[in-house]
Amino acid sequence: MPQAEYSPEELAAGEALFRSAWVFVLSAPSLEFVPPMQGAEVAFAGRSNVGKSSLINALVRHHGLARTSNTPGRTQELNYFRSPDRDVFLVDMPGYGFAQAPKEKVRAWGELVRGFLLGRQNLGRVFLLIDARHGIKKVDLEIMELLDTCAVSYQAVLTKADKIKPHELAQVIRETEAALAKHPAAYPFLIATSSETGLGIEDLRAAIAQVAEQHRV
Fold first, then answer.
1. Residue among 130, 114, 74 at smallest CA distance from 98
2. pTM, to two decimals
3. Least crowded by CB within 10 Å, which of 2, 31, 113, 163?
């Protein structure tokens, strides 16, 4: 399960998709507020403070589009962003694994996420963000099992890859590959990224462009 590699044409398609200024659409605290199913959606899931918002901002080249915070668990809703040129949506899902969250909030999070995963026929892929400094944790495995159960295709994206040494990153990649190989819904290529240095951002744009093209409804 090697890191993803994309052709010049695929990279160009990713660049084209993110050339225009993406816009914020809405925040949905529950499923009744999500937009009608149209176009293609890709979602970003990950532990609290894994860097989802920073990664989205790097993708769209807009540092303030997705709200970032040093406080784990800030994103509690489904945040939608849209391409101005095509019916393609990025969905920033609520972070999981915040130990201090009240049980009622954790329960509500579970209902929102499960309902979203089961109900969005135009959801092409979930990008599962893993902090490269820590690798896959128990709570990540639980989400992977949920994605398997919901039969939702997902692809691992290592974040903050610039924060560790190359040989450490290589080890994390091997360990992540081994874990993903046990999950039927996992996409067979991972992408190592850094929102600060731009590592892997072009590859991730290319992956999203592929999904957008394949999952239009």
1. 74
2. 0.91
3. 2
